[in-house]
Amino acid sequence: MRKLILLFTLLIACTAQAHQMKTAITRVVFSDQTQNVEIMHRFYVHDAEHALSELLGKQVYLSENKEAQAQFARYITAHFRMGVTEGTSLPLTTVGEEVDGKFIWVYQEVPRPDNVSELWFAFDALQERWPDQVNQINVEGLGKVRSLIFDRHNRWQSLN
Q: Signal peptide position in this chain (predicted)?
């Protein structure tokens, strides 16, 4: 019986710990088909609801509230920047947002820039809420997939 209780306690601790890591993934895809750069941000709904509820001062449920989804998308797009020089941003267009299971997706795009030798990114979403928030950007469509990791100590990073 003691072993069963210990196993059950460990399972609960692992489940609780499984979502303790605050992480978001963004795919930046250079599409030959559309000639756009397609940007797809993925956040856990739980994290998004928690952050948006704190920002608005009331409980928010994203799966039930399209306006709340749009508010979260506006927040994310205000915290993501992509440019061809450090500190500058390309004019990204927000395409939309959707809740898909345990994730909320926010979509952006921009016409593919010509003759770019270097790309700069900044992505600090949710880092003012949670100091351990990590945002990963994966850049695809320019050869090998390359990744950048943003924590609260990184602002602008570049890829050549």
A: 1-18
